Amino acid sequence: MERYRNSGGDSGVSAYEIGSDYIIVKFSGTTKTYRYSYGGRAGNNHVENMKKLARNGSGLNAYINKYVKNLYD
User: Fold this and answer.
1) What is the value of pTM for the model shown?
2) What strands, in cross-sheet order, belong to the sheet with 2-3?
């Protein structure tokens, strides 16, 4: 997994892994990971938005909380 840059300094996300049709997110303070995928409940639009935010190192935690919190596979 790649360490999340967290440019805002206050994210709950600590790491992520990007695949062609999914993103796996790890949150601070836990070993559990959450997979969001095209074929899962999150869908490709949300997954692509999350990939972009992860690469930019900003806004991923807020996006998850607002749009896909419980839509992991």
Assistant:
1) 0.94
2) 2-3, 13-18, 22-27, 33-37
Rounded Cα–Cα distance for residues 60 and 12 (Å)? 9
Per-residue pLDDT tens digits of the chain, which is 73 residues long: 999 998 878 899 999 999 999 999 999 999 999 999 999 999 999 999 999 999 999 999 999 999 999 999 9
- The identity of residue 15, as a single letter, is A
- Return phi, psi of residue 31, to 5°: -95, -10
**Full domain range(s) for residue 40:** 2-68
Domain count, the chain: 1
